[in-house]
Design goal:
Layout: E1 4-14, H1 18-29, E2 34-37, E3 51-53, H2 54-63, H3 66-72, E4 74-75, E5 78-82, E6 88-93, E7 106-108, H4 111-122, E8 128-131, E9 134-140, E10 149-155, E11 161-171, H5 178-182, E12 187-189, E13 194-202, E14 213-216, E15 223-227, E16 232-238, H6 246-249, H7 251-258, E17 271-280, E18 283-285, E19 289-290, E20 293-295, E21 301-302, H8 310-329, H9 340-364, H10 368-382, H11 387-392, E22 423-425, E23 431-433, H12 434-438, E24 443-446, H13 452-461, E25 464-467, H14 487-496, E26 499-504, E27 510-515, H15 525-531, H16 535-538, H17 542-556
Parallel strand pairs: 1-2, 1-11, 2-8, 5-14, 11-20, 24-25
Antiparallel strand pairs: 3-7, 4-7, 5-6, 9-10, 10-11, 12-18, 13-16, 13-17, 14-15, 15-16, 18-21, 19-20, 22-23, 24-26, 26-27
């Protein structure tokens, strides 16, 4: 049927998987209306991703769903590396379930439950419309750049075709992305693809296996096992050269594969939810953006599963882009801010993919000789002090210096890293996660009085200032219980090191720092001087632009 133009929207998100729904939720929280177009009317019913780390759990907090996600997820205890005969080579246990970001370091869950949670959250956000049962057939950027972007789609129930106009389009439409093709972006291979068989099983009886992730370091039959929920379990088996998935999915063969983990469990208690053959690829796209068309998630990168970062990488994309796009669309920042999306996320995702490839090679690669070397080396490695923390800690690398990441200065928190999230006492003395106190936008943590230039910068960014009590600067006779910092504040002050103030982006990345001043002085001239390079990009229109100009002028003139 003939297409008609029916509407114009600020943002159209193509794809209602975890990445698309996260982007829509974050944009809505920043005040931007969103239309989500999705082919399926309900969440995909079969489990796929099963793991999110504490950093991504923190992003769920930014969406307001961290508590409900905690109710449908379970922390993972740690990891065991085993040989082909299932003898333990090394064991890595977590000392504490909670990590740098205030949440369990490894969270196991059922993807359909998360997607339903994200959809339910959108019901409370009238600025987001989720339209299911439609197939996007074309995304057409303006021939000479700019906006709007034309999106054509067909209602699968009626066959009616329509065209809408959007100020920005987010392609969250998966590995076979139509949006990626529309901007001429191409995937680049970072490693050879591998074929794996994924098996999901439900069993009401607890399996008599160690309750953590099992990695079988056997080049003949590499495998991974993990408990996902109270009665759900997953196995992943690498296919051998020339082997077909059908050779392993016969029930007798399948039960034989999982038998090392299921001794004593009656066969009729093992209910196969799904068997699927997956090609685990290591790819990243060469272009992430054309004007106001952006790629996110599997549309722009594919990660092998060895460090459990596939879904998390897409949600990080959404978190990185949402605040920038919102700031541009609402007239508070210049278009140049959007250039930082690919600059930051491409290198970050590429490094994670290479890490996953390297970890997979160390654990499962090589031949018999490599397997013997692993057997000799891994037991000693696991006994080294700090080995468990190194192996199990978050793998997310810092952002490199760039337009929105200041240069590193000795003794300060490193720009490009994420701020920790301890519990901080609010004005009523109640402990609350730090991000709840910081709000949605820029924030400044300070242990020293702010100078005029830094006050001007804070006003230009509309940043929330959190003054922290620094116990190291407390003079004798001024202490006492009422003046002592709570443990979370103390940890945050220690993290700040020699900084008197730390400026945080809305995604909680350290943008820059100010050195702690001498007693009786104020801080921030050095941070304001550094801000001259990026404040005009972040501040556009009205008082904010004037304040940014003042910051640049004061910094250039030495205050």
């Amino acid at each position: 049927m003939t297409a008609t133009t029916s509407e114009r929207v600020p943002v159209a998100v193509i794809g209602a998987g975890p990445t698309g729904l996260s982007a829509a939720t974050l944009l809505a929280r920043h005040g931007v209306p969103v239309l989500v177009l999705e082919r399926h009317r309900a969440p995909y019913p079969l489990p796929r991703a099963v793991h999110l780390d504490d950093e991504v759990h923190r992003i769920l907090q930014a969406m307001g769903i961290h508590e409900t996600f905690s109710a449908i997820s379970r922390p993972a205890r740690g990891m065991r590396l085993l040989d082909g005969a299932h003898r333990v080579l090394a064991e890595f246990l977590r000392d504490s379930p909670y990590g740098w970001h205030g949440f369990p370091q490894a969270n196991m869950f059922d993807q359909p439950e998360l997607e339903q949670l994200l959809r339910d959250t959108l019901k409370n956000r009238p600025s987001v419309t989720l339209r299911g049962g439609v197939e996007v057939t074309a995304v057409t950027p303006p021939p000479h750049g700019g906006t709007p972007v034309e999106v054509s789609f067909r209602d699968e129930a009626t066959g009616v075709s329509r065209t809408l106009l959007a100020d920005a389009v987010l392609g969250c439409d998966g590995a076979n992305s139509l949006v990626r093709a529309s901007i001429g972006s191409r995937m680049q291979d970072l490693a050879t693809a591998q074929q794996w068989l994924v098996v999901d099983i439900r069993c009401r009886l607890p399996l008599p296996a160690w309750d953590g992730v099992h990695q079988i370091c056997d080049p003949q039959r590499a495998a991974t096992y993990m408990r996902v929920g109270e009665d759900r379990y997953r196995w992943e088996f690498r296919l051998r050269t020339g082997e077909q998935p059908e050779q392993l999915t016969d029930r007798d063969r399948l039960l034989a594969l999982i038998a090392p983990w299921t001794p004593g469990i009656p066969e009729d208690e093992l209910h196969v939810l799904r068997t699927a053959s997956y090609t685990f690829r290591a790819q990243v796209a060469d272009r992430w953006r054309q004007d106001r068309v952006f790629l996110l998630g599997d549309a722009v990168h594919l990660t092998p599963p060895f460090i459990g970062q596939g879904m998390g990488a897409g949600i990080r994309d959404a978190h990185n882009l949402a605040w920038k796009l919102a700031r541009v669309l609402t007239g508070r920042a210049s278009e140049a801010l959007l250039d930082s999306y690919q600059a930051e996320r491409h290198r970050h995702a590429q490094q994670l993919i290479r890490t996953a490839v390297a970890v997979g090679a160390v654990m499962t690669g090589g031949g018999t000789g490599t397997a013997l070397a692993r057997k000799a080396v891994l037991p000693g490695l696991s006994r080294l002090p700090g080995a468990s923390h190194l192996v199990l800690s978050a793998v997310s690398p810092p952002l490199r210096p760039g337009p929105l990441v200041g240069s590193r200065r000795l003794g300060h928190p490193r720009p490009g890293t994420l701020c920790p999230q301890p519990l901080i006492s609010d004005s009523d003395g109640n402990p609350r996660p730090l991000d709840d106190l910081l709000g949605q936008d820029f924030a400044l943590l300070a242990t020293a009085p702010l100078g005029q230039a830094l006050h001007t910068l804070v006003r230009a960014l509309d940043a929330r200032v959190i003054h922290l009590h620094d116990p190291r600067r407390q003079h004798p006779g001024t202490g006492g219980a009422a003046h002592r910092a709570d443990p979370g504040t103390g940890a945050l002050v220690r993290w700040m090191g020699s900084a008197g103030a730390v400026l945080l982006r809305p995604d909680r990345v350290v943008l820059g720092t100010a050195a702690r001043p001498r007693p009786g002085s104020t801080c921030g001239d050095d941070l304001a001087a550094a801000a001259a390079a990026w404040a005009p990009m972040l501040c556009s229109g009205g008082r904010a632009a004037r304040d940014a100009t003042i910051v640049a002028t004061e910094s250039r003139d030495g205050g």
